Every structure is written in structure tokens, then in C-alpha cells.
């Protein structure tokens, strides 16, 4: 896979890491386990259903990552994220084919084992009699060895399943830690946005107060201007008109 892009946002990086872990789990653990499954049929079907669910979940996560491509801030980040999305889709298509092949292989193995058991169960009575007549001691020893081998194989399979479940638990723990880190990053971003909103609110309040003061000053200046104009009119027009109108009173 290409290196993890460094120009994308933290949310996309966390989603990329999650998809890579799930794809790696499908590639190295689940599909090989299904391919090596020799029965019973219920176990094979359960493993196949688990793989299908994980493949669908990874497909949805890839689509979520595709949606985040257009949200990147730079063209370089969008280009890197687009390449990663295409790579994930190609890998997922290959895993789907591998899963179908693993289902066919395990089905053939189960069918062959069932056919072998059926042949042993319905084998000819003459051959069974010959084995018994050839020596009871040898037959009993072979049966004991077969039972011992079966028990050993069962224990080995159980240990293998326990080890795989432990690996899955470790993977789940890693996913939980990644989700916790993402939540912490989101909480820090939320706190930063809250501080920014508080500062913006204070700035808006200060601007509103300044605007109110400016309005009051403008209104006061306008009133003062009107008073000055009225005073000038009274001195220049009214009083002068009265003096002209009553000039004759000087001779009375």
C-alpha cells in the first residue's frame, strides 16, 4: 500500500488506520482461517458470515473516506486521499475474490471429509472382518492410536482458535484505543471552538456598545448643529428683519 498521506486531516487519518487494520485482519487471519477450515459445516458458515460482515463494514468505511476527499483543504491532500481510496477499493475487491475462493476450498475439504467418513461407515463387511481376523491386538492398538491422534488434533485446533481469538482481542483493544484518541482530539477541537465562540461573543458585544455610543454622539452632534443653525437664523434673519421693519420708530 502507498504511504499514509500526511497532508490530510486527523479524522481521515484515523479512518485510514482503521480500514488498514481491518483489511490486514481479513488478509492475514480471517480468510486463511476460513480456507483451512475442515468442518463442521456450521463453523464454516459462521466464519464465512463473519468475513462477509467485515467486508461490508470496510466497504462502508471506504465510502465514508471517499466522502471526506472533497472536504480536504489542499489539492495535494485531496489527491493523496483519492489515491488511497482507490487502493482500498482494489484491495477490497481482491479480498472478496479471495473470500469466495476460501469458501470453495473449505467446502471441498468438508465434502471430501464427509465422503471419506461415509465410505468408512458404509464400507464392505468382508474387509472389516478381515481386519478383525488379522489380529485383535493390532486393531485395538490402531483404534487407540487413532483416538489419541484425534484428541491431539482437537486440542491443537482448540489452542489455535484460542490464539486467534486472543489476536482478535488485541486488535479490538487497538481499535478502542484509536477511537479513544479520536474522541479526545474531537473534544480538544470542541473546546477550542467554544473558546473561539466566547471571544467572538465578547467582541460582538463590544462592537454593539461602540455602535450605540457612536449613534448617540451622531445624534448629539446633529442636535447641536440644528441649534447653531437656528441661532444663526435668529441673529441674521429675524432680528435684522425686525430692525428693518421698525426703523421708523427711531424718529418717534
Could you describe the 3D structure shown?
The structure is a single chain. The protein is mainly alpha-helical and 252 residues long. It has a domain at 1-122: Methane Monooxygenase Hydroxylase, Chain G, domain 1. The chain is 87% helix and 0% strand. The protein has helices at residues 10-35, 41-67, 75-121, 125-133, 136-245. Helix 2 runs antiparallel to helix 3 (75-121). 11% of the residues are buried.
Give the tags:
mainly alpha, single chain, 252 residues, rod-shaped, Methane Monooxygenase Hydroxylase, Chain G, domain 1, 5 helices
Short account of what is shown:
87% of the residues lie in helices and 0% in strands.
Topology, pairings included?
Elements: H1 10-35, H2 41-67, H3 75-121, H4 125-133, H5 136-245
Helix pairs in contact: 1-2, 1-3, 1-5, 2-3
Amino acid at each position: 500500500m502507498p504511504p499514509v498521506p500526511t497532508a490530510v486531516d486527523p479524522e481521515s487519518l484515523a479512518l485510514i488506520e482503521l480500514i488498514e487494520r481491518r483489511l490486514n485482519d481479513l488478509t492475514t487471519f480471517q480468510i486463511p482461517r476460513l480456507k483451512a477450515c475442515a468442518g463442521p459445516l456450521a463453523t464454516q458458515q459462521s466464519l464465512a458470515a463473519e468475513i462477509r460482515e467485515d467486508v461490508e463494514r470496510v466497504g462502508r468505511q471506504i465510502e465514508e473516506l471517499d466522502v471526506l476527499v472533497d472536504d480536504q483543504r489542499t489539492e495535494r491532500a485531496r489527491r493523496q486521499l483519492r489515491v488511497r481510496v482507490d487502493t482500498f477499493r482494489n484491495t477490497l475487491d481482491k479480498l472478496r475474490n479471495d473470500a469466495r475462493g476460501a469458501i470453495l476450498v473449505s467446502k471441498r475439504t468438508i465434502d471430501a471429509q464427509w465422503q471419506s467418513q461415509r465410505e468408512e461407515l458404509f464400507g464392505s463387511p468382508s474387509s472389516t472382518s478381515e481386519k478383525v481376523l488379522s489380529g485383535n491386538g493390532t486393531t485395538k492398538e490402531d483404534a487407540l492410536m487413532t483416538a489419541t491422534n484425534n484428541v491431539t488434533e482437537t486440542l491443537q485446533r482448540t489452542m489455535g482458535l484460542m490464539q486467534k481469538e486472543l489476536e482478535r482481542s488485541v486488535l479490538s483493544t487497538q481499535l478502542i484505543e484509536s477511537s479513544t484518541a479520536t474522541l479526545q482530539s474531537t473534544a480538544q477541537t470542541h473546546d477550542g471552538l467554544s473558546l473561539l465562540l466566547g471571544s467572538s461573543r465578547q467582541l460582538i458585544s463590544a462592537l454593539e456598545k461602540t455602535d450605540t455610543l457612536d449613534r448617540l454622539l451622531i445624534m448629539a452632534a446633529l442636535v447641536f448643529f440644528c441649534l447653531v443653525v437656528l441661532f444663526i437664523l435668529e441673529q441674521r434673519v429675524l432680528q435684522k428683519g425686525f430692525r428693518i421693519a421698525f426703523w421708523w420708530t427711531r424718529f418717534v
